[in-house]
Amino acid sequence: MSNIWLLVRSSNTLSTLESLSVSSNDSNGSYPDEKRSNRRRKVVLLLAKLHEYIAHVDAGWNQLVQFTTYKAAYAGKQVIQVDPYNTSQACSESGLIVKKGLKNRVHSCSCGYTEDRDINVAKNILKKAVA
Prior knowledge:
Layout: H1 2-10, E1 14-18, H2 38-74, E2 78-82, E3 106-108, E4 114-116, H3 117-130
Parallel strand pairs: 1-2
Antiparallel strand pairs: 3-4
Helix pairs in contact: 1-2
């Protein structure tokens, strides 16, 4: 977490984060009774493990946001969370939507702009924050 403090302290007055919502609907807590198939029981157990994993990821992200916001406020800076919708698909130069899979690490738009995918996303997040 000290790396966050260094990043916040050395950056400009504004930090931006995507406002991620990784939580899912809670299950109703019911388990299949003995009459149901093993396949259904396995699926229910897998879903329960997935819900537990998502809860941990959500808690971790929320902790990161809270800590970054706290450190930024202490340094007299501001953190803005933005909607992540299309931040990885939109071209930061033209605004065109360029569909790509996660394995594609280079953003190439028909407007001629080519950039590393992560840099393009960072530019989109910053644009949303200052808009």
